[in-house]
Amino acid sequence: MSAPSRPVRASTGRLARGVRLGDRIGDRDNNFDVLRLFAAWSVLVSHSFALVGEAEPLHQLNASLGNVGVLVFFAVSGLLIRRSWEYDPSPRDFWTKRALRLLPALATVALVTALVLGPIVTSRPLTAYFSAWETWIYPVRVSLLYTVGAGLPGVFEDNVYPGVNGPLWSLPVEVFAYFGLFVLGVTGLLARRWVVTALAAASLVWAAWWVPHTSDSLGAVYVLSAFAVGAAAYTWRDRIVLAWPAALALVALCVVSGLGPASVRVVVWTVAAVYLSYWFAYAVPVVGRPLVRWGDASYGVYIWAFPVQQTIVLLGADDPWVVMAIATPVVWVLAIASWRLVERPALRRKPRPTAAPAGDPVPSTGRAAS
Fold first, then answer.
1. How many CB atoms neighbour CB 142 within 10 A?
2. Which residues contact 224 (CB under 8 A, 6 or more apart)?
3. Which residues contact 219 (CB under 8 A, 6 or more apart)?
4. pLDDT of residue 353
5. DSSP codes, 276-335
6. Is the pLDDT of residue 365 over 70?
7. Is the CB of residue 285 less than 8 Å from the CB of residue 11?
8. Which secondary structure element, helix H or strand E, spans residue 19, and what is its range?
9. Which tens digits make up the pLDDT trace of 128-183?
10. Within 13 A of 363's CA, how many CA atoms are on the CB side?
11. Rounded to whole angstroms, what are the CA distances from 218 to 66, 162, 165, 211, 224?
């Protein structure tokens, strides 16, 4: 195996000229951690409005800031999970990595919510709360990714927006995306460029049809198309150039398409989320290092924010900016604790990749390929 290439730092010149995705994809000197953190925080910001009954940011474009954050998560996962499979195409290792990344922190938030937060905020007597089967099944069903509709007796039922931890709906959807990539990998179809490209194109067609014909809650699963397009981007990494003129044009297209039919907006925003995520990660000079110096808080922010925000609303906050201002530091501390005490120790048990794709050296214990 050839020696790993030295990381090349992004510069102002590179920002202007653009970079080829394939040339940077093995470089750990990127903005993915910061990008994911802002994606998670954007969901917190968006829900600060929804949970007090106000329209979420970007509603003027018939979308929400939270939806954009989830799109970014799926776009990033499509590329990096595909890359992870190329590093280590072992079924056992693939699912071990995914389980260690998702489940320990998820089980922790489920247990704390049910057995610590729930008894404090429930509107029912404690004897009724602890005798209800929903209390004890909640941590089990959430840990098993049966997250949709998971509730606790008397917990946030009288809030403006009832629900214990709404954002968890995306986790089984993401695992479904992992499963699709896994099937393509074990059958060898993932190595066929035309198959991956055709599936990505088909996912965009499906998304364009799905969103206008379903409810808002069901329509949200169209983010699967961002994962598919991201996986296809890895296939075409030798042809994709990340440059600011294209990024700027896509931002303008997002604004224009947001004023038009939902089917057009879905396609444009999905493609834009994929391209802009990789452009920010690889073509923009590294930014926000102080924000991630304490650890990768993005997953923790995503899974802890909603119950914290619901508690703040329950205590009487009815202004989205107040909810946001109080929730952000509280959730940040919980997310850092989750990373240091739960997520990072779990990830240390990940199996190491045995080989790297040609031209894409294996990084040393980085999080980007997880």
1. 24
2. 74, 173, 176, 177, 203, 207
3. 210, 211
4. 65
5. HHHIIIIISPP--HHHHTT---HHHHHHHHHHHHHHHHHTT---HHHHHHHHHHHHHHHH
6. no
7. yes
8. strand 19-20
9. 999 999 999 999 999 999 998 899 999 999 999 999 999 999 999 999 999 999 99
10. 18
11. 15, 17, 17, 8, 12
- Cα separation, 28 vs 24, in Å, equals 9
Rounded-to-integer distance, Cα 249 and Cα 295, Å:
33
Rounded to the nearest 5 degrees, what angle is found at the Cα of 223, between the Cα atoms of 222 and 226? Answer: 120
pLDDT, residue 15, reads 54
Question: Does pLDDT of 361 surpass 70?
Answer: no
Cα distances from 258 to residues 206, 211, 337, in angstroms, run 18, 14, 38
- Whether residue 308 contacts residue 327, with contact meaning beta carbons closer than 8 Å, is answered with yes
Helix, strand or coil, per DSSP, at residue 252: helix
Give yes or no for a contact between 25 and 237, defined as CB atoms under 8 angstroms apart: yes
In three-state secondary structure terms, 51 is coil
- Tally of residues, the chain: 370
Q: Which of 39, 97, 70 is nearest to 166 (CA)?
A: 70
For residue range 229-271, list pLDDT tens digits in order.
999 999 999 999 999 999 999 999 999 999 999 999 999 999 9
Strand-strand pairing, 241-242 and 19-20 = antiparallel
